[in-house]
Design goal:
Length: 417
Amino acid sequence: MKKFFKNYKSTLILLGAIIVGTIVGLIFGEKTKILSPFGDLFLNLLLVIIIPLIFLTISTSIGRMEQPKRIGKILAVIIGVFLVTSVISCFVGIGTTKMFNLVKLSDTEAIKEVLAEEVVAEETSVNFLERTVEAISVNDFSKILTRDNMIACIVFAILIGISINLTKGKSDKFLEVLESANHVVQGFIKVIMYYAPIGLGCYFATLVGTFGGEIALGYGKIFIIYTVVAVLFYFIFYSLYAYIAAGKRGFKAYWSNILPATLTSIATCSSAASIPVNTDCAKKIGVPEEIADTTIPLGTSFHKDGSIIGSVFKIMFLVNLFNADVSTFKVLGIALLATLLVTAVPIGGGTISEALIISMLGFPASCIGMLTIIATIIDPPATMLNVVGDSASSMLVARIVDGKNWLKEKTKLKRSK
C-alpha cells in the first residue's frame, strides 16, 4: 500500500486539488473569480516553457540516438504495425465520443469571454499545400520561438537532431550544451508541477464557480466513459491481436504472461518504467528476443493506444464545449500527430500534445488547463493500454516477420533446449 501511494502521490495530489477546487466552486459560485489569477499563473508558466521544451527534448533525443539493431524489414514492419493499430485506437475513440457528448454547455459565448481569446472554428480557404508549408516552416528564425508555429518548431528540432546525429564527433560539444539546457528545462517543469495543485485547483474552482456543477459532472462522465472503453479495449482488441498473431496458442500465451506488465503500468503510471517488465512479458509470450528488445522501447515512445484514445477525448471535449464542426478526418489526423509525434517527448510531452491540439483546432490557448485535467484523470487506464499494447504489437510484428508458425516454432525450440 505504501508503494502504491508513493507511485500515485503526484496524481492523487492533483486529483485532490481538483476535488477541492470543485467543492469551492460549487459552494462560492462566481465569487471564485478572485482565484482566477492563481490559475492563470500556472497556465502562463506552462505556456512559456512549451517552445524550449519541444526544441530541446526532440533535438537531443534524436541527436544522441544510436544506430538501430534491427534490419530494415523489421523496422518497416514495426512502423506499419504501430500505424495500423494506432488508427484502430483512434477510430475507437472517435466512435465512442460520437455516441456520447462529453460535455454540454449552452452558453459558449460566456466560455469564450472567460478564456479571453477568440475561437477560430472556420477553415480557411487557403490551398492545402500552402497551408501545410505554412504549418511546417517559417521564413524567419524568430518565428520558430512562438507557439503559433509549434509544428514548424517540431520539424526544426527533428532536423537539428538529425544534423547532430550525422555529424557525430564534431557536434558532441553542441549536443552537450543542448542536453545541459534540456536538464534545466526539465527542472523548470518539475518546479512548475510543485505549483500545479494550487494552480489547477484555483483554475477548476473558477471554472466550476462560473459554469456550475455541470462541467464538473462532465469530467466525471469523461473518466467513467474512458475507463469503460479502456477495459473493453484491453480485453477485446488485445485478445484479437494475439489471436491474429498466433491463433489460440497466441491468445493463451498472451493472457498467461501479460498480467505483470498490466499491474506495473497501473502501479507506476509510467510507460518508461514498465519497459523492463513489459519486455520480459513479451519474451515469455514467445516473441523473439530481437523483436521484443526493439518493439517495446520504440513503442514506449511512438505507440500509445491509450494516449491516442485520450487525445480523441480531449479533442471532442473541446469540440463539444465550443459546439464546433470538425471533420472525422481532422480529428484522426490531429490525434495521431499529437500522440505519435509529440508523446515521444519524455518530460512535458503531455503539455506539448495538449497545446498542439489547441493550436491546430484554433481554440484558446487557455483551454490547456481543461485538457490537463482530462489527462490527469485518465492517466492510469491510458498508461495500461500504452504498455500492454506494445506487447500485443510485438506479437503482430513476429507474425509478419517470421511467418504464421513463429510461436509454434519458438515453443519447439524451447522444448528442445
